[in-house]
């Protein structure tokens, strides 16, 4: 079954209102298409549709962090307190950039801080006060990436959105990939959840509630992008980070593996991994809660972008896991000779 047919069937089952996808090699796309609408009964998905990337923000921010490492503005062993004076004397003072990137910081994840923190300042204070896990290990932590974004801002001396633009999106010509959509662009964004907390369908503003309280710019979520921009990023990664970081830097970033985690990326898991069954152990990628993903396999010279709004109008369905795996299996077999 083709990738398009897989996604058309998922659309017909109501898994999302719209989808866009591309896959190929460093030379360019082999397959590319889109289907559906921006919302239930909304306008058709188009080339200019903006997708809430959710946690695919993390590796993009991670690339900016690695660019700072390359330039000497950060090292992987720098601590939170070395960049953030407010962390001095806390249990997080000695947490390193490396630990934040690999989700080994012991900072607990999946914390709905927005429920008790209505302002950016109160949420940032709550981050400092989160008790660390007692035992070391890998725990996926958006909260750790919130702190990583603050560390990167301090090291660069510019706001996070400006840093990502200067170090990642502008060099690659990703002109549509950014935080904080202007109001006039929000109508071309794919809708996400009919959100009980907000009392409305979210469209053109960040779906992640913690990111919204932080102002829409955060290390863990908040970026929007188009299909062609994400495909361009996939091609650049297939070329060894061309335009963003040096090949050696990208090799360290993606080749480091601790409990299935690379630096800001997931390593490929052959069983039940979102990259499917056919990628090599060298593959890396990331998923977004809204239904987005980017996977790259440098050994196969392969990338795949899948963009959906699977949380529209509700996050209740868990069908996206199998959809991602079958999509990537079909994309790999149609890309390789």
How would you characterize the overall build of this protein?
The structure is a single chain. The chain has helices at residues 3-12, 57-71, 80-83, 97-101, 120-129, 142-156, 160-172, 209-213, 227-238, 247-255, 320-335, and strands at residues 18-25, 28-36, 51-52, 178-179, 194-195, 200-201, 223-225, 266-267, 284-288, 292-297, 302-308. It has 337 residues and is α+β, with helices and mostly antiparallel strands. It folds into 2 domains: 3-56 and 173-335, Beta-lactamase (3-Layer(aba) Sandwich), CATH 3.40.710.10; 64-161, Methane Monooxygenase Hydroxylase, Chain G, domain 1 (Up-down Bundle), CATH 1.20.58. The strands form 3 sheets. Strands 2-1-11-10-9-8 form a 6-stranded antiparallel β-sheet, sandwiched between helices. Strands 3-7-4 form a 3-stranded antiparallel β-sheet. Strands 5-6 form a two-stranded antiparallel ribbon. A hairpin with a 2-residue loop joins β1 (18-25) and β2. α1 (3-12) packs antiparallel against α11 (320-335). The longest helix is centred in the C-terminal third of the chain and has 16 residues, at 320-335. It starts with a helix and ends with a helix. The relative contact order is 0.19. The model has no long low-confidence stretch (mean pLDDT 97).
